[in-house]
Amino acid sequence: MAAESKRSSSVAGDEAVAEEQQIDVVVSCAIDDFCDALVAERNASGNTVRAYRTDLGDYGRWAYREKLDALHASHRDLRCYLAQLDAARYSRRTVNRRLSALRTFFRWLNVTGRVDANPASALIGPKSGKHLPQVLRPRDMARLLSVHASRDLKGRPREQSLTDMRDQAILEFLYACGARISETSGLLAVNIDFDEKQARLFGKGSKERIVPLHDLAVDSLRRYALVARPKLLDGKECPYFFVSTRGNQMKTDAMRKMFKATVREAGLDDSLSPHDMRHTFATDLLNGGADLRSVQEMLGHAQLSTTQVYTHLSVERLKKVHDQALPR
């Protein structure tokens, strides 16, 4: 009897979980069509599409649980959804991201004639606190770049393995041109010009930009290209510049894993990510006197306002120096 009761309880629990995960078929198809449109019309990246699918899927499952028509929700319904996210202690950033996804989704539904109105257009998300990017101090950058280098921090020569040469080239590349990790993984061998000391990158929406490379980065990249890469390929052909030990494209996950391991070996803050190399690149350029438009072009930002966050970071650094220098 007890076993039967336990079995019934387990079945009920499974049904509750299944109910939590359910979504209306029509809504699911609409989300699929929307994601297809993102790729076809905006050339959205895989990461962008996955983020939209995740956020809209969460909304669709919420609407199913609340027995609401997700495609014809009212302004009040969407406010209720956002309020529940807030009650569940989702961060302001997450709530605003979900709201942005809903705005874009309902705008598409409206333009394509699937709905008559956009109930998300007038919604206002919670104000987000100022969040300045994390950057590496010069001495921390030196420690990070010494882990796989041919010389240690004291300048003593050290033997590099094939993967050391590759990983050093990746780190130097990230810092030298502020590339995103996805751009680094997708870098083609033909798009590195050693003579001109520059690289051709394809960012979000496949937007092309050419970024210069300094001598140290070029030396590291050339050493990898001439010595390590051919041996890692071992007779295989691969169009991508950075390759795995099996001679295939080195994926973003593998690069992130390598970066985390390097950060730990350097004894740095474990919260550092490859994107912080991009933040450091931009901040160091501005601190060195580069103008905002040039930094915008090198980062591949569509809007200047996106780049302006680094000016705030530079001001924060100046304030700290000011406070430390002046006794009053």
Describe this structure as you would to a colleague.
The protein has 328 residues and is mainly α. It folds into 2 domains: 13-111, Orthogonal Bundle (DNA polymerase, domain 1), CATH 1.10.150; 138-325, Orthogonal Bundle (hpI Integrase, Chain A), CATH 1.10.443. Helix content is 60%, strand content 4%. It is built from 14 helices and 3 strands. The protein has a 3-stranded antiparallel beta sheet, with no helix packed on it. Strand 1 and strand 2 (198-202) form a beta hairpin. The radius of gyration is 25 Å and the shape is elongated. The model is unreliable at 8-18 (pLDDT under 50).
What order do the SSEs take from the amino end to the carboxyl end, as H and E?
HHHHHHHHEEEHHHHHH
CATH domain class of the largest domain = Mainly Alpha
- Proportion of beta-strand residues: under 5%
Structural class: mainly alpha
Q: Give, in spatial order, the strands making up the sheet with the most strands.
A: 1-2-3
Arithmetic mean pLDDT: 84
CATH level-4 homologous superfamily of the largest domain: Intergrase catalytic core
**Uncertain stretches of 5 or more adjacent residues:** 8-18
Q: How many β strands by DSSP? A: 3
CATH architecture of the largest domain: Orthogonal Bundle
Largest sheet: 3 strands, antiparallel
Distance between the termini: 79 Å
Radius of gyration from CA coordinates: 25 Å
Shape: elongated
Number of helices: 14
Percent in helix: 55-70%
Overall domain count: 2
